[in-house]
Amino acid sequence: MKVTIVGAGYVGLVTGAVLAHKGHQATCVDNDQAKLETLKRGELPIFEPGLPELVAQGIESGALRFSGEITGPVQQSELVFICVGTPPLASGKADLSYIEQVARETARALRDYTVIVEKSTVPVRTGLKVKRTIEREANPEVIFDVASNPEFLREGSAVEDMLNPDRIVIGVDSDRAREVLEELYQPFGAPLIVTDINSAEIIKHASNSFLALKISYINSVANICELAGANVEQVARGMGLDKRIGPGSLHAGIGYGGSCFPKDVDAFYDISKELGYEFTLIKMAQQINADQRRRFIQKIERALWVVKGKQVAILGLSFKPDTDDMRDAPSLDIIGWLLENGATVRAYDPESMDKAREMLPEVEYAGDAYQAAAGADALVLVTEWAEFEQLDPHKLVETMRQPILIDGRNLFEPDAMRDAGFEYVSVGR
Ligand code: UGA
Q: Fewer CB within a 10 Å sphere, N or C end of the chain?
């Protein structure tokens, strides 16, 4: 099928590359000319495992194209995916101006029957507003449908998640739109959940908020474990094997970050309130999350005693492993606090140092973890990249001025670290 994807960010690029891989003709449209030039050369502006190969394959076969112009691709497509950003406004609401803009531009281009699909994460009832916007702007003769098809991709495993989804949710208000989307997703062989548009929109916000809640829950349990002398990893395993609970998102640590959970929980709270319901439960999840970062910073402070003049090594900067995304990364708060309090910081991250340099110019960047640790008074693990598991703790201890290791992700085994000579602090153990 011929598909236009508007917005060549994380979601749009992965959607375009995977649909092309599954035999469709995908054109990614973006108004950022520099980004388009990069993409046409087969280079990617983001680090996402598996994506460069898929994009290269798509370009090579001609199934994946890039364009700075929307009209031509829309007129040739049966489906138009809206994948532009919905960043948070100062109020916590989602900024829907890019969605509105794309809806208008798409409307003006429409000729034959087209399904316009929202993939960006949006508050419930956005579909309705997209439909009204298109009705106002499009040629009145044109027939179209609006649908919602939220994505459930995690950065770092987005390609894998889209190729093998747990479920595909399509929210439609006509059989014709349902048939078009069923045909598109037929090659995926995944369970297809068909709902009305409002429900599909809520599925996305409710899923992200629930996962955020789960993380805040286990972080609260971790705090009790610390007070009681229990081990949160053992507790999480014992809970997660109950099928009703499940093991995912039960990893205690510094709390969630990134471009999705913090903004989506705020936006879901906000739309609920607008509709007349105060969703206090998810408000608490956000508060617990902010507290968890503060508690971690207190652990660093306790371990260092005097912060001023100390040298601190940071391992991992991105908000999670396998991505170079620095949006709402806990490292920003932690490093900001260290610098404000007079420490010097040397950091290492396998992929995100280029992006970090722009945001944290005062930090010194190291070529590897050992270089970061050399001469440091404390080593702080912020992001659990797999390569850090392979580090030799004896070698790290030897190179440091004070052997203090503060592990924000429970990556290391406490006994092994203490045996190597570390004063070791982690979360809920
Ligand atoms: C999240 C959702 O998991 C995706 O399903 C969704 O599609 C995406 O948001 C989105 O809305 O676009 P993502 O933010 O990429 O994906 O990453 P997650 O793996 O869910 O991690 C989010 C944050 O929670 C990270 O900071 C991670 O470190 C933290 N986390 C995750 C924990 O602290 N503990 C856990 O057990 C799991």
A: N
